[in-house]
Amino acid sequence: MDSIHKRERKPAGESRHLMDSLQNEIALDIVSRLPISSLIQFRFVCQTWNMLTHDSRLVDLHLTRALKINPCIIFKSYHPQKEQLFFVELSDHDDDEHTLREIQIPFSASMAKFRVVGSCKGLLCLSGVYDHQAVYIYNPFTAEHKKLPHCNHEFEVNEVVYGFGFHPATNEYKVIKIGYYPHVYYATWSPVNTHDHDLPRSEVHVFSLGSNTWRNLGELPYKLHHSPGVLVSGRLHWVTRFNWHLDRLIVSFDLFNDAFQEVPRPDFNVNLFHCSYHLASLRGCLCTCLLTSNGENLEIWIMEAYNKKESWVKEYNIGASSIVGQDMSPQSYDIWRTSLQKGTVKVMCMLKNGSILLDCQGGILIAYSMHEKILKIISISGMPKSCQATPHVGSLNWIANPT
Fold this sequence. Notes:
Distance between the termini: 32 Å
Low-confidence stretches: 185-189, 192-196
Radius of gyration: 22 Å
Number of strands: 27
Strand content: 35-45%
CATH class: Mainly Beta
Number of domains: 1
Mean pLDDT: 82
CATH topology: Neuraminidase
InterPro entries: F-box-assoc_dom_typ3, F-box-assoc_interact_dom, F-box-like_dom_sf, F-box_dom, Gal_Oxase/kelch_b-propeller, SCF_F-box_component
Structural class: alpha+beta
Protein name: F-box protein At3g07870-like
CATH superfamily: Kelch-type beta propeller
Largest sheet: 5 strands, mixed
Helix content: 10-25%
CATH architecture: 6 Propeller
Number of helices: 7
């Protein structure tokens, strides 16, 4: 298994002199087309090439192109002592063999157990599992990272939900931290009900990389599901917990004005006590992904016009009946059926060829072709037994100077 941060200085030879003689604009155009793993190796060839990779024009141009191709997939392995990050660059062909490569985390000694909060425009946000104060913004390919300052809460926090995103209007990355206090578990959770002594049930803080400070937004009257927020239209989205909100609401956080609001969800016409759904982003639209109670189908609804309830459309219905008789391997079919029945299927993203990438059973990737109605396992050598998968755009993006 290769490592992305092994620095081997390659002989420059004639290639260096050729690149030096090219006009800068042409060089930027050529280099911006490299995959991120090649671009990282490129910077170690010579000083001239290294300087080129720090050109803000290259950062912008490469990121623009990277957003239009298949994403990298970041894998976080689960380990009882020390967790690791790996990545794979997806090709344009589902049948290709992909190689998993390790990412060396420069701050792993200070945060052995962590969660991937989210990925946005080339940057990852990681938070500590046991230390709620440990939060890092991190470019896994350049190894640049920033530890966020401590965020103080009024009471001891029992549980934390994080979010990470970027808004183009403000050109700022923000981290959202929602801390829930222990006494919420002994009170009726409702936006309108109060409980003994009027103690706050939660406390919301937002951190802006631009100002480098946390700001207290007060209490949030929703109990959000502990999952990465889905970024659509400059807003992060979560589903509320069933135990406190019987309707399983969708709640958004606007990264422009730092405001929460409910977003209308589709009329599933099912009892959500027996079904579950999660959120995703496809084609830049908010999606709800419903796993039916019989363990036979995955329904994908797309909100074609943001925040318009009437714009919800059931676009895809992926299930056993829709793929019967198709040309697919028994292994793909068995994994798909088992994942459906266990409710472990997650919609990740849409690939360049129009297929939908699904995460089944924690790290097994399957591509679903909507036109052929075929499921194909993405073959990856060296995969750990259990891991969390996150789509990620590989980029040279800097934390100090966000694009």
